[in-house]
Amino acid sequence: MESIFEVDVASRCHCGIRCVLKTSWTNENLGRRFLGCYNYRVAGGCNYFKWVDHPVPPRENELITTLLRRCEESERKRHMAENKLQTFDEDMKKLHNEMVGREEKLSDIMYVAGVMNYEEMNELLLDILHHNDAFSDE
What we know:
Elements: E1 20-23, E2 33-36, E3 49-51, H1 58-113, H2 118-136
Antiparallel strand pairs: 1-2, 2-3
């Protein structure tokens, strides 16, 4: 077996094609590199296979597997947090737009209040509240 830095990628398989350097992601050989036929598992390809790295001791393999699973879980949680943040941002924009609309209505009411008496203003406020309730039911 060659050292980690001396991989003969010019090797040829039984088909006469240059081998490709691949990495195993199985639990038994996690991260272990090997040379294989370019057409491995394809019609017409041979089953040439040669390990490049030494076997990983069981304890190290267990640690690598555990760390890889933790990374995958962290990545999944990060995606979930990004989705929640995006939803939160969208909700904040909706609330902001709603608040701007209400501020405009309040400004209109305050302008009209200077011209209306108390009963007219009360009637207008009730109409606005009734109108907002109709939209919130949709």
